[in-house]
């Protein structure tokens, strides 16, 4: 059965973007190249809420066409553009701005349950704090891949804002990157 992974960069103080909403990513490095290659191998479907999808759809097609990016960064762009994307939105009716995007016909829980039963690689949520929180509250996340950047942002969008339910996680892997960032991968320990 396919899994849904929530994979996010966050600061030590728990933010996924800066105080002005600006993206602050990890320093690009050999370890990050290896980690992104792992993700490219693992996933074939990307899930997005409207806000993150609009930002990504404006970035990744241009990034793939940019001849100045490194080979690993170009591979990420090819993956992002070529992968199947499911968009959850109430306000958009046209998703043609980014190839391979379909608008979900059902709610998040129903769509994820149907997708998990299909053959294929795992699915991932890469971006969007509010959409990630909606997925967490719906109980559809199977694994968390958190890359903690060695920086305090001092403000921004908190990944786990407003999460009232206690969720037990089992550590799958933890490693320190060559930049000092820490990758922690957890499985949701569901009650049997």
Main attributes of the structure:
192 residues; alpha/beta; Dihydrofolate Reductase, subunit A; eight-stranded mixed beta sheet; 5 helices; 8 strands; 31% helix; globular
CATH class descriptor of one domain: Alpha Beta
Structural class: alpha/beta
Sequence of strands across the biggest β-sheet: 4-3-2-5-1-6-8-7
Residue windows where pLDDT falls under 50 for at least 5 positions: none
What is the fold-level CATH name, i.e. the topology of one domain? Answer: Dihydrofolate Reductase, subunit A
What does this structure look like?
- Helix 2 crosses helix 3.
- The protein has a domain at 41-159: Dihydrofolate Reductase, subunit A, CATH 3.40.430.10.
- It is globular and about 40 Å long.
- It has an eight-stranded mixed β-sheet.
- It has helices at residues 30-42, 50-65, 71-82, 108-116, 129-138; strands at residues 4-11, 43-49, 84-88, 101-103, 122-125, 143-149, 169-176, 182-188.
- Strand 7 (169-176) and strand 8 (182-188) form a beta hairpin.
- With 192 residues, it is an alpha/beta fold.
- The two termini are 17 Å apart.
